[in-house]
């Protein structure tokens, strides 16, 4: 390696206040590795130095999008341009893989897949005018484990009736998705609390000899009807999951 060497220049702290051993990254290795992982196709990088801070090896794990020679040239150019380091290309080794994702991405993917399998997903809420005057039709669509159900409720065009209709449509869609159980909406109310407008619902779940009263809330953001849907999902979340897992 020739040229200026910020890794060796780091033997003393800025301003000459102490030896390199007191610095968290005396040879600038982490700085170089972070730089290399920003290059196109580079998944991970490891820089090995001698006790004097000279680069002895650079190991690159890259995707198969670029050829190894191009990856090496990119590494050489980046080190020279950003850190002033000229590294012999023979010190750079490149391993390639067809599909490698960081462990964080794998974990996020696994968690998302598990959530999609277990959770009730809200798809949409539709509100349309009914054939009769002063009435509307509310449709709620939910998905569980890839299966989707949509239930409609026709109600009077008043705030209270629309809230109850949205809640009942949500409960009806849940009934179809979990089967062999019944959900009854026993009450829906808009509550002003702590400078927020909240929809509060009471839902009864029934199956066999069991009967459970559940409550749920959701803040009104886009619409009160939409909040009623989320309040029912909040109330029934654990109850539905327990019956789906049984």
Mind summarizing the main beta sheet? 3 strands, mixed
The number of helical segments is 6
Strand/helix succession: HHEEHEHEEEHEEEH
**Physical arrangement of strands within the biggest beta sheet:** 1-2-3
**CATH-wise, what's the superfamily of the largest domain?**
Alpha-isopropylmalate synthase LeuA, regulatory domain
Measure the end-to-end span: 65 Å
CATH topology (level 3) name of the largest domain: Double Stranded RNA Binding Domain
Strand content: 35-45%
Proportion of residues in helical segments:
25-40%
Task: Write up what this structure looks like.
With 246 residues, the protein is of the alpha+beta class. It folds into 2 domains: 6-100, GMP Synthetase, Chain A, domain 3 (2-Layer Sandwich); 110-245, 2-Layer Sandwich (Double Stranded RNA Binding Domain). Helix content is 35%, strand content 35%. It has helices spanning 6-9, 29-36, 68-83, 103-118, 159-178, 224-245, and strands spanning 42-49, 55-63, 92-97, 120-129, 135-144, 147-156, 182-193, 196-207, 210-219. It has a 3-stranded mixed beta sheet. A 3-stranded antiparallel beta sheet has the order 4-5-6. A 3-stranded antiparallel beta sheet has the order 7-8-9, covered by helices on one side. Helix 5 (159-178) runs parallel beside helix 6. It is elongated and about 80 Å long. 24% of the residues are buried. Residues 8-23 have low confidence and may be disordered.
